[in-house]
Amino acid sequence: MSGAGAQPDLEAAPAEAPHSEGLGVWALAWPSMAIFGLQSLVGLVDFVIVGTLGTQAVAGVGVATQFFNAVFAVLAAVTTGTIALVARAVGARDLAEADRVLRLSTLLGALLGLCVSALAMPFTDSIVAAFGVEPAVVRLGGSYLRILLAFTLPFAVGFVIASGLRGAGDVRTPLLVGLVMNVVNVIANVTLVFGKLGFPALGTDGSALASGIAFTTSMALYLVLWWRNRLMLPRGPWRTGLTVARARRILRIGVPTAAEQSAWQVGLWLFLRIVAHYGTEPVSAYLIGVRILSFSFVPGLGFSVAAATLVGQHLGAGRPELATRSGWRANKGAMAVMACVGLAIIGVSRPVASWFGATGSATVDLTVSFISILGAAQPLMAVEFALGGALRGAGDTRFPLLAILCGLFVFRLGGALLVSQVLGGTVIAVWSCLLADYLVKAVLLSARFASGRWQEVRL
Predict the structure, then answer these.
(1) 323 or 294, which is more confident
(2) Whole-angstrom Cα distance, residue 283 to residue 292?
(3) For the chain, how many helices (H) and strands (E)?
(4) For residues 41 and 162, what is the distance between their CA atoms, to the nearest angstrom?
(5) In the prediction, which pLDDT does 68 show?
(6) Distance between CA atoms of residues 105 and 86, nearest Å
(7) From CA 139, how far away is CA 117, in angstroms rounded?
(8) Is the separation of the CB atoms in 364 and 354 below 8 Å?
(9) Taking Cα atoms as reference points, which of 444, 176, 166 lies closest to residue 313?
(10) What is the DSSP string of 253-307?
């Protein structure tokens, strides 16, 4: 992190960055794990707070959050290209280009965030109803989603800046900002949901407002640090580098990932609709189970960031052999850690299910069953996280899209429809189709990375 003194003339000559050989998988992965772990912890705390309001509140917030995650899909059109291009530039010792990419990406992310908010806000009740839930859930979820969408701009700006910093190898600044954001979120949740410190009790709407306040806090911190030139990437003149050609490079890399993430969200929505045919209890069990198991996803996200950063930087430095080695090391680490965390969560699933909003023996039993199924898939999910991240860091974003389409739509959804509509199977049998989905994606991504074709992708 640099001081706040005179700004260097970044446009005059490429600034230099240290070679990426000094960065290791674990050195990049653990801070990312910490921030994603904090986010998962805060998400679970939010769910516990909302869980005190009843099963309908849990379902409404869960469904609304499921749709809000689609914002990640849209922003992936920017963030994926940002990570790949920033990593390449840093690997090539050109901090000036990395800074130009980050400035343009932040502008593109802000525009996309505004577009998503403007398009979706008038239709939040219809969006929640499209998940096939009951009217009371639609009312709660629609209101929750409207409030979240009002804060899409600060969410987008903070998300893009954090992604650019990770591409540069700075994972500690996002960790510190995320820590502050999550503390703000927890305090605001307790205050606004239950009506503390003189505020009215807003219920589920209070939880959404707390998230918005946290997003705004994150954006403000990043912008202050950036303006004061205290980020890893020295800030150049704001208007320079905002070219159509550079925007096309960012989007050419990122759009396939946005399509992948959008397809993923659509697939999750369709899968949840299939689950909803079995009633509100299976929906709640599914949403609670995903929340609990989000802890086991944390290592995968951390190793995904590490793999993308190292692969991109090593390729930028002209060291493809180190890029390959980093990808496989990230994959091994992710598989080992995610398998252990998944097993631990399976072991404590019954009491934890009750803590996080599963009420009634039927919902608890279903939650435990779902956790057991998804927990067993953790090593396969690890491959998707690590090697998918490695391919995206290289700019090879089209193949992960093909893998998602094959695993999710053919094996998960196709299998779930076969089980539910043709064979008349139980919801547990439907959930078991997750295993086939993750197995297929793990095989395809492993084969692609082993082929080395991702090294030939031109950015």
Answers:
(1) 323
(2) 14
(3) 19, 0
(4) 19
(5) 84
(6) 10
(7) 19
(8) yes
(9) 166
(10) HHHHHHHHHHHHHHHHHHHHHHHHTT-HHHHHHHHHHHHHHHHHHHHHHHHHHHH
Task: Please state which of the ranges 183-192, 266-275, 374-383 shows the lowest mean pLDDT.
Answer: 266-275
Q: What confidence score (pLDDT) does residue 22 get?
A: 42
Of 105, 106, 142, whose CA–CA distance to 124 is shortest? 142
- Helix (H), strand (E) at residue 385: helix 378-393
**What's the pLDDT score for residue 45?**
74
| In the chain, % of residues over pLDDT 90 | 47
* pLDDT average, residue stretch 336-357: 82
**pTM tops 0.85, yes or no:** no
* Helix (H/G/I), strand (E/B), else coil: 109: helix
Eight-class DSSP state of 423: S
**CA dist 24 → 77, 146, 323, 329, 389 (Å):** 27, 42, 11, 10, 15
Helix (H, G, I), strand (E, B) or coil at 170: coil
Please state, in angstroms and rounded to a whole number, the distance separating the CA atoms of residues 215 and 178. 10
DSSP annotation string for 117-129: HHHHGGGHHHHHH
Chain centre distance of CA 278:
28
CB 326 within 8 A of CB 277: no
> What is the end-to-end Cα distance of the chain in Å, rounded?
28
> CA 157 to CA 215: how far, in whole Å?
9
Q: Please list the alpha-helical segments (H only) found in 92-238.
A: 95-120, 124-129, 135-149, 152-167, 172-194, 204-227
Tallying the residues shown for the chain, one arrives at 459
- Cα–Cα distances (Å) from 185 to 17, 43, 65, 428, in that order, read 35, 9, 15, 34
Could you report the per-residue pLDDT of 406-450, keeping only the tens digit for each?
A: 999 999 999 999 998 888 889 999 999 999 999 999 999 999 999
Q: Which two tokens stand for residue 305?
A: 């960031």
